Amino acid sequence: MIQLNPRDYQQAIFNTAKDNNTLVVLPTGLGKTLIALMLAIERKQKFPTSKILFLAPTKPLVEQHFETFKKQLPELFADLQLFTGEVPAGERKKIFQTAEIIFSTPQCIANDLNSYLYDTKDISLLIIDEAHRCLKNYDYTKVVEFYKRQSHNPLILGLTASPGHDPAKVKEICKHLDIEEIEVRTRDSTDVKPYLKDREFTNINVPFPKEFQEIKVLLKRIYDSKVEQLQSRNLLFTPANKITLLKLQNSLARQTGSGNWNAMMGMSLTAQAIKISHAMELLETQTLSGLDAYLKGLQKQAEEKKSKGVQTLVKSPEFNAAMISLSLLRTKGVEHPKIDTIFEIVKEEFKNNEKAKIIIFTQFRETAQTISTKLTSLDKVNPSIFIGQAKKLGSGFSQKEQKEVIEKFRSGDINVICATSVGEEGLDIPEVSAVIFYEPIPSAIRKIQRAGRTARLAPGKIIMLITEDTRDVAHHYASAARERKMYRTIDEVKKELKQSKSRPTLDRF
């Protein structure tokens, strides 16, 4: 007999999911995997000869779900198999025939289905973790299309902490997964609240020093000049920001093939504007060491004549004046004031609680490294960076190294993790006493994932650093607004799903 003790909200969600294709929206750490496990058991009991397919976007996440099921299920309940690209295709084909619960990345299954190694006719439950990724041509959608066509007894369970705030994208996710019901809970839901601990929010405003402002003025002059040239060439008609410039870059790239000189010039100007925008972001929100490394990288590219646009940038008087000012600050040992602020916060946390565990989230690897290095001088603080796999500048972590950091964090050998976005999604990072946002992020999905790392089993803190008079302020308000909009959007889509159920002959969306 399998002994599971679901919480009230998990039982309620399961009751919906066993009869309907369901999208479950539940904050990080509130037990989405247990709902998947309960549903897998129910489907195996209902269709004993069927298979269950559990998909997650990364290998560490897939392994995590595999281990959870292995711990919870009796040894002889079902044949559990882990699919990875490392297993040869022919071997996967053989394993699939006898496997009963399969854990895999979507890429692996999509490739196998495209190669006709096997089909999905016997799969009675498809579980999609991080379902907010089920958009456009991502491999999730390919697997789902096969499944909807082939399965004799189809049922789909989508799991996410946040599907995003854009109604079109939420509808697209629901359409791809044939969603019939959405089960959403927040930390404030009446059936969730009793299981959670208090969470304390603190925003800390950090001043933007006058010397930094002077460098920003110089960089802004270059940026404004590039934007004005794009406008005068009738290439840019909307306010310039990172998103509009990236869209323009993609649009111009499609036009340059035909020898369009104006588009080619526009490509160069757009690339220059994006580079300077990035430099301003590093200055405003990150570290001076990161900005210094980035600008010196541009100088090196110019010396190697890799790009005429970069050569133009580094020749400008404003660029050189910015480099001189930056060099003077670096010589004096000046760093972004957020670094000292983090140092004081962590020092105070460990003064109040020697067993504290803290995760600090930041956008950039260089920032994570700078924070970690600074914190090593604190007594009883053992920090480590936690970054993704890309071997850029030799700084990437393999999946094995990522696992080692998490295990050391769990055991207490490491008590502060300085993480980039790899620490946000799904990974089984232990409960922490405080989550520190080095910078606000405009994404509601990522904000919810970061914040979900604390206040589950014990009271926790969320501390947000905001550099005054910079893009940090706008990003802070944007993520809050998008989070509110997300829940409104989910409510609207839920209503549309209910209406479509009463009109079964019409398309859902």
- Which CATH architecture of the largest domain? 3-Layer(aba) Sandwich
Radius of gyration: 25 Å
Q: Considering DSSP H and I runs of 4 or more, what fraction of the residues is helical? A: 40-55%
Helical run tally: 18
Q: Can you identify the CATH class of the largest domain?
A: Alpha Beta
Strand fraction: 5-15%
> What is the CATH superfamily classification of the largest domain?
P-loop containing nucleotide triphosphate hydrolases
Rounded to the nearest angstrom, the distance between the terminal CA atoms is 42 Å
Descriptive labels:
Rossmann fold, 3 domains, phosphoenolpyruvate carboxylase, domain 3, 509 residues, 18 helices, alpha/beta
Describe the model.
There is one protein chain. The chain has 509 residues and is α/β, with parallel strands linked by helices. The chain folds into 3 domains: 8-192, Rossmann fold (3-Layer(aba) Sandwich), CATH 3.40.50.300; 210-331, phosphoenolpyruvate carboxylase, domain 3, CATH 1.20.1320; 336-483, P-loop containing nucleotide triphosphate hydrolases (Rossmann fold), CATH 3.40.50. It has 18 helices and 13 strands. It has helices spanning 8-17, 32-46, 59-72, 89-98, 106-114, 139-150, 167-176, 210-232, 242-255, 261-285, 288-303, 308-315, 317-331, 337-352, 365-375, 399-411, 444-451, 471-502; strands at residues 22-25, 51-55, 80-82, 101-104, 123-129, 156-160, 181-184, 199-206, 358-361, 383-386, 416-419, 434-437, 460-467. The strands form 2 sheets. Strands 3-4-2-5-6-1-7 form a 7-stranded parallel sheet, with helices on both faces. Strands 8-13-12-9-11-10 form a 6-stranded parallel sheet, sandwiched between helices. The chain is globular. The protein starts with 7 loop residues before the first helix and ends in a 7-residue tail after the last helix. 41% of the residues are buried.
